[in-house]
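Review form for a predicted model. The reviewer records the input and the model, then writes brief findings.
Reviewer: anonymous (R2)
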Amino acid sequence: MAFWSSTSVFTSKVPRKILFMFTLSLSVTYLFYSLMSCYNSLQFPLQENYVFQGRLVTEDTTFVTLREKLYSASPVFTEFTQGERTTAAPTVGEHDEAEPRTVEWIRTQASPTKSAAAFRPTAPERERQEISTTDSELRVNCTSDYGEKKLPQAIIIGVKKGGTRALLEALRVHPDVRAVGNEPHFFDRNYEKGLDWYRDLMPSTLEGQITMEKTPSYFVTNHAPKRIHSMAKDIKLIIVVRNPVTRAISDYTQTLSKKPEIPTFEVLAFKNRTLGLIDASWSALRIGIYALHLESWMQYFPLSQMHFVSGERLIVDPAGEMAKVQDFLGLKRIVTDKHFYFNKTKGFPCLKKPEDSSTPRCLGKSKGRTHPKIDPDVIRRLHKFYKPFNMMFYQMTGQNFEWELEEDSVSRSSQD
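Model under review:
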C-alpha cells in the first residue's frame, strides 16, 4: 500500500504531458537499440540490378555481400567480375521470391569449415572502399582476373588453313565465350607438361561462360582424340573444313611466304607427274583427306559432340555460320550480321570496328595472301583424287559441302 500511495503522489505532482514524453522517449530508445542489436540478422533483398559479363544478377545476392565479394582477395569469390548498376528495381513479387533464394545463396557460399571473417574486410577498409570506389572504378577493377581457370569445354580442333582463326575471333566477341589467343598445342606437343599447365593457360571464366581454345593440328594428330577424351568425355569439338584443294594451295602459300626456296606446288603434289601419281604423304595434301582423320575421332566421340563449319560459307555468310556454332555451344545468338563487314582488299569478312578502337578488327597479314598461279590440270587431278574421300566425308558427317561444284567450274574454265 505504501508503494502505490507513493506512486500516486509522484504522478499527481508531475504533469501528465511530461510523463507521456518521458515514456515515449524510453520506448523509442528501446526500439532503436533493439533494431541495432538484430541488424546483422536481417536479410535485405538487393534493390538494384547488377550486370556483369552480359548476365543479370538481381535477387540472388545482397548489397553488402556483393560488395564484400567484389573486394575480397579470396579465390572463393573470384567468380565475381565487372559490375554495372542499372536503374531497374525488383517488383513486389520479386522481393517475396528473393528472400528464400538469398538465404539459400548465403548458406551455400558460407562454408562451415571457413570463418566468414576470413573473407570480410575490416571495418576501416570497408568504409574506405565505400567512400572511394565509384561505379566507373568498379568497371575498371573487375577485370578478367575475377573468375576461375577451367579446362576447355569446347575446342576448335581443325583444320589448318580452314578458317579457324576467323571463327575464334568471331566467337570471342560473345560475352559468354573466353578463349586463349595463342594455340596451346597441348595434345600434340606439350602433353607431358600436364593438365595443370594446360589449365593455367586458360583465361578466367565466370559461371555460365565457356572456356575455349583452338589448335588446328589436333585434327590430324593420331593420339589427340584419346587424350582429349581422357580429359573430358563430354567436350564439344568444332572442325572448320574447306575444299581440300583450295586448302592445300593456301597451306603451300603460307609455307612459301616463310621459305621462298621450296619447290613449286606441282613438284610437291606429285610423285610422278607423268603417271599422275599424287603424293598423299605431303602434309599439305594429307590434311585434306578429312574422312581418314575423322574416323579416328569417331572412335571416341559421337557426331552429336562435333560441329562442322564450312570454311566457304564462313566467308560468304559469316553470320549464318556463327548462328549454327552458337546454337551448338548452347549460347544465345549474340554475334550476328551486324558484327561483320566484307573487306574487299583481303577478300573475306572482318569484324566491325569496336566503339573503343580506332581500327577495325581484321585478321593479320598472314591471312588472305594471294595464291600462286597453279596449272589448271594439276587442280583438276587433285579434285579427282579427293572426290571419293569427300563423298565418304559427306556420308560420315551427314553434310554436303558441295566442293564438286568448284571442280566443275575449274573443268569448264580449262575447256574455254
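Findings: The mean pLDDT is 75.
Further findings: The first helix runs from residue 2 to 13.
Recommendation: see findings above.
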